[in-house]
């Protein structure tokens, strides 16, 4: 996976926007996501949870939720976030994007 380089000026702007939540973690493969909490935007739904297991077919999320309305992406909580009663298994082929948010 190629690394993205940014200028010091851009890095400082990012730090200002994220405040105390700022930290850098290099992700070289999906295995680097284990133990971290991410939002997975999929073909039909958006899922949020802590990555427990990654294999060739799916990503297992614990403490998982399905997001029906994110609201503002810089908000501290999603507008409509429904907690799932069990872990969720997200098919890797359905993932369009993944990212970290403040929630």
Describe this structure in words.
The chain has one helix and six strands. By secondary structure, the chain is mainly beta. It has a single domain (26-99), classed as SH3 type barrels. Strands 1, 2, 3, 4, 5 and 6 form a six-stranded antiparallel sheet that branches. The chain is globular, with a radius of gyration of 15 Å. The mean pLDDT is 88.
Features:
single chain, 103 residues, mainly beta, SH3 type barrels, six-stranded antiparallel beta sheet, 39% strand
Topology, please?
Layout: H1 8-18, E1 37-42, E2 46-54, E3 58-69, E4 80-83, E5 88-91, E6 95-99
Antiparallel strand pairs: 1-2, 1-6, 2-3, 3-4, 3-5
Helix percent reads 10-25%
CA radius of gyration is: 15 Å
Distance between the termini: 27 Å
Ranges with pLDDT <50 over ≥5 residues? Answer: none
Write down the overall mean pLDDT. Answer: 88
Task: Name the quaternary structure.
Answer: single chain
Q: What is the fold named in CATH at topology level?
A: SH3 type barrels
Largest sheet: 6 strands, antiparallel
What order do the helices and strands follow? HEEEEEE
- The helix/strand class is mainly beta
- Beta strand %: 35-45%
CATH architecture: Roll
Assigned CATH class: Mainly Beta
The shape is: globular
Find the count of extended strands (DSSP E, 2+ residues). Answer: 6
Number of helices: 1
Q: How many domain regions?
A: 1
Q: Could you provide a short overview of the structure?
A:
The chain has 103 residues and is mainly beta. It has one helix at 8-18, and strands spanning 37-42, 46-54, 58-69, 80-83, 88-91, 95-99.
